[in-house]
Design brief:
about 375 residues; alpha/beta; TIM Barrel; 8-stranded parallel beta barrel; two-stranded antiparallel sheet; 11 helices; 12 strands; about 35% helix; globular
């Protein structure tokens, strides 16, 4: 099994002079992860994360320049690069898969060609920079499709969703472009809802019958939304048996505290972390461990144990270095406007999921996110 990290915001964090420490000594987290046996670096790519006046969307402002700089930084330390194509100008996930601004006038019948050309040209630029891509995600958490409204999957009366035919054409064009530029790169189709076997069966049955050639089924697993370890394990085993595909957990994470780094908040303040007291009180799933430093370490240990036992090929921790601070935001007001999420604050709302505390000091979970000695 291999380990990976998604550090797509890392350069943005460094611009705010944030430092990282182990036992009080300053460290470079890229080197620390490598010593732990982490060998894969997943980096997201947004098409054009700026508004019409050139103001950045933040959240890493993950444009091609950011990707190239991060990839070079990590490749030089021995990481293999995993490109996560969002095919959007900002965050793409099951609740939003917005067309890039410059694609909005593209007719649906030409959208597959647009996706192919964008993918091909982008990968050519990356290759010219001397970056070797090992894996490529065609879309991010595309459980409900991508490039909405054209590539969206719509349900009807509880029956199988509609839209797989066009979605399959989009995915085929993406995988074709990847193999044209990087013939040896593995392609990944990535969903969330890793506890929901019925959704996975429906999705992969339809795209495989639609002729989509891909190598790996990618999953996100956050127990806040995605059920129990048993549900995850059962779905992994069924995907392996039914579709004969390798599995990677492309995103996971767990909180180390319920305390906010902003000390002036009251419970009615809208500037809450994503995972907060109110969220936990109202969630349907029971968490496997307390949201504490020890609980996070136990979670990391258990998910790696489970992944090894099921021959999962890789596990990625999502944004373990996304420290809080002035100007370190999940979105700017301009980014919020693009995705129509202007009803909350812009500050870093994921900081209590890091493997470093709010001041950059390593947590116990970091020491657990490691390969066994015989695996290194």
């Amino acid at each position: 099994m291999r380990l990976g990290v998604d550090l797509s915001t890392y350069r943005e964090v460094l611009t705010k002079n944030k430092n990282f420490y182990i036992d009080g000594k300053e460290v470079n987290p890229l080197d620390v992860f490598r010593k732990n046996g982490v060998s894969l670096a997943r980096i997201r790519l947004w098409n054009d994360p700026y508004d019409e006046n050139g103001k950045p969307y933040l959240g890493g402002t993950c444009d091609l320049s950011n990707f190239i700089e991060l990839a070079k930084m990590q490749q030089s330390r021995g990481y293999e690069i995993v490109l996560c194509l969002h095919y959007s100008d900002f965050w793409a996930d099951p609740g939003k898969q917005y067309l890039p601004k410059s694609w909005k006038t593209v007719a649906p019948c030409r959208l597959t060609k647009k996706l192919y050309r964008y993918t091909f040209k982008t990968l050519r630029k990356i290759k010219k920079e001397g970056i070797n891509i090992a894996f490529v995600q065609i879309g991010n958490e595309i459980t409900n499709g991508m490039l909405w409204p054209h590539g969206k999957l719509d349900g009807i009366d509880g029956r199988a969703r509609r839209g797989y035919e066009f979605l399959s054409e989009l995915l085929k064009k993406g995988t074709k472009a990847v193999k044209k530029v990087y013939p040896h790169a593995k392609t990944i189709i990535h969903l969330e809802r890793s506890h929901d076997n019925a959704v996975y069966r429906e999705f992969f049955t339809n795209i495989m019958s639609g002729g989509v050639p891909f190598d790996i089924i990618g999953m996100s697993y956050y127990p806040y939304w995605h059920g129990t370890f048993d549900q995850l394990a059962n779905n992994i085993k069924d995907m392996q048996k039914t579709f004969d595909k390798d599995i990677m957990i492309m995103e996971t994470g767990y909180g180390f505290t319920m305390d906010d780094y902003l000390k002036t908040l009251d419970k009615n303040d809208r500037a809450q972390l994503v995972i907060n007291d109110e969220f936990i009180k109202n969630m349907n799933n029971k968490l496997p461990y307390p949201l504490s430093e020890e609980g996070q370490a136990s979670f990391v240990e258990q998910i790696l144990t489970l992944a090894r036992s099921l021959d999962v090929k890789a596990v990625f921790y999502w944004e373990p270095c996304w420290l809080p601070g002035d100007g370190i935001c999940w979105a700017s007001p301009e980014g919020q406007a693009y995705i129509n999420e202007t009803d909350k604050e812009t500050r870093n709302e994921w900081a209590n999921q890091c493997l470093f505390d709010y001041r950059g000091h390593a947590l116990k979970g970091l020491s657990k996110f490691t390969l066994a000695e015989e695996e290194k």
